[in-house]
Design goal:
14 strands, 6-stranded parallel beta sheet, binds uridine-5'-diphosphate-xylopyranose
Length: 461
Amino acid sequence: MNFRKNILCIGAGYVGGPTMAVIAMKCPEYRITVVDINEDRIKAWNSDHLPIFEPRLEEIVRQTRGVNLFFSTDIKKNIKEAEIIFVSVNTPTKTFGQGAGMASDLQYWEKTAYQIIENSEDPKIIVEKSTLPVKTAQAMERILKESKNHLRFEVISNPEFLAEGSAVRDLIEPDRVLIGSHQTESGLEAANEIVDIYAHWVPREKIVTTNLWSSELSKLVANAFLAQRISSINSISALCEKTEADVSEIAYAVGTDSRIGSKFLNASLGFGGSCFKKDILNLVYIARSYGLTEVADYWESVIKINEYQQERFVRNIIKAMFNTIVDKKIALFGFAFKANTGDTRESPGKHVAKKLLEEKAILSITDPQALDNARSDLAGADGNVCYEIDPYKAALNTSAIVIVTEWDVFKSLDYGRIFENMRKPAFIFDGRNILNHRHLFKIGFNVYPIGKPSLTHFEKS
Ligand code: UDX
Ligand code: UDX
């Protein structure tokens, strides 16, 4: 079949894979290829066991793979054939040298830019899908200008706003699609080509076009604002625990103000995921590098509150369990950084598990999707951790249950049955406020929610 355009995506991760699958489904006349340096990942994309779990993803890949969606490790050939190249390689926080722990590590991006110029014979549109520091496009353009045959590469910024667990829905029904380009004739022309792709299914008024730098910075700012809301409500949860106010009631009262809105006000044991911390650190680093100390400090406090919340949660567990958890068996319900994903990057669960292990607790971890990742995250702690897909088995003979992830399945368990098979006194620490605390208390549990009064059977001292 003759396709209208050849689109390539470099990087078959959480962003590249689902994004290209949805584009393939919505644009049957385009040939979409996804390449990756990781052979195992590509093998998995070509198998029945996709490398990532996202609701509906499997069905879409099954429908398009081999028709107009292809996964390959042949990066050179596919660069040569592509007219539009999306780049969604990872951009982790730098772990070495200047900007370590703060700045983005752009080495994969840079390598990719060199790969593109080395293997191109025609001009191409390069689309930044990865989240990048503002002004990265400029650096990319400088590299791309060095192509041996003086080809023109137009760089477009098209940041991803998909959240894990709802990636397919976010792609199919986005709040907006953002496309940034130079405001030159060729820049606008290239932006239009990208608009054309999304216009297959996204209403035109939801496709926002802007300049390159606003687009790059908008992505960092969007994530920073979202994380800031969580840190704001989490900071209030600490105050609630001191004053007998209820953080859920406050979130509701505040969120019904239409100027504020109700989303992202769920107090928790802290936010996780590959993006929030990394993007805020990046924003902080950029602000500092321009001498904007107050701006940098302001955003850095969002991360500090998140760390404080995780520490506080663990401290509360230990304190409630009579200041010692040595040899006590504790079940972690959930390990993924949020529900509906197996991803554990920056998961608060990891932090909680490590701290509890340092205090010599024995853990049994249950999670419907994240047990493989949990195993590799906690490698070395074998002997003190066991992994159980069945929550009832995970809770057997434990003294406490810690809710880490807000999986639906944890909401509908028979906690009466669980309580029967636990050591007494039995504790529940609900790090997501998803359970019916009064009901649990009646069963006999000592219940510790986030930002609400605890319900215990102990006499007040
Ligand atoms: C994405 C974005 O790219 C990142 O900037 C954003 O902030 C988070 O989401 P994600 O898809 O989650 O990253 O990353 P990951 O799942 O690690 O996928 C990146 C893929 O790129 C990996 O499969 C990796 O093997 C591949 N890669 C990396 C290449 O193909 N070439 C490289 O040179 C480097
Ligand atoms: C985020 C952004 O939402 C998305 O637009 C961007 O493209 C990538 O980063 P993601 O990290 O997948 O997506 O998950 P998100 O749903 O934003 O949740 C991030 C973390 O915040 C999770 O740990 C979640 O549990 C936590 N969270 C979220 C809360 O603690 N409270 C809330 O009210 C909402």
